[in-house]
Write a structure and sequence with these properties.
Oligomer: single chain
Mean pLDDT: 92
Radius of gyration: 20 Å
Helix content: 25-40%
Low-confidence stretches: none
Strand content: 25-35%
Number of strands: 11
Largest sheet: 6 strands, parallel
Amino acid sequence: MNLIVLNQDDFIAKNTVRLTGRRLEHIRTVHRAEPNTELRVGLLNGKIGYGIITSIDGDSVELITTLDQAPPDILPITLLLALPRPKMLRKVLQSATSLGVKQIYLINSFRVEKSFWSSPILEPDKLNEQLLLGLEQARDTILPEIHLRPLFKPFVEDELPDLCKGTRALVAHPTSKKKAVLEPNLQTTLAVGPEGGFIQYEVDKLVSCGFVPFSLGERILRVETAVPVLLSQMLSLQ
């Protein structure tokens, strides 16, 4: 936890917060903090700064905060991700959040198992847990938005054309002979398929919306590896 993320409900006075639960435990056992210890803190969807511990015990910790810094720049990518298996989804959400993605669409695909859509991980509170872990890791405070789109064809035909309009639209496709040339600060819509990739029908539908298929080369990567590899390329251009 490189950043203690605060909520508005944590404030007991103008600049004073009281924390319990997981954040208290982390401060006690990982930071091994005592009164007057300074910690990095940030307000969810707000500014970043520091907090100085005024008291700490087994029930709560109180800090006086100063929030005077902007969070890191947003990565200009909208990620369309074919819903992976729950264990993998946790890793991808944390990675994408850490790298600065703020718009994530979880979409369906022929190779996505139907049971994935009924997984408890898709409950809003469970999703937010993974996003918060990513924010804490990267010292960020801006919570990504996650959109669930369990029907592929209606999403691609009715919503996607407007969503990707004015952006560079790319679809990762293992059999493509092209390699993506990412450009700095160019708003990009990136589609990543399931294990095995999108089927040809799905690729064709994406191409009809203006997407350009590309690959990372001869190596076939798992989704949990491919997504951070692709996003880190864009991050390095900022």
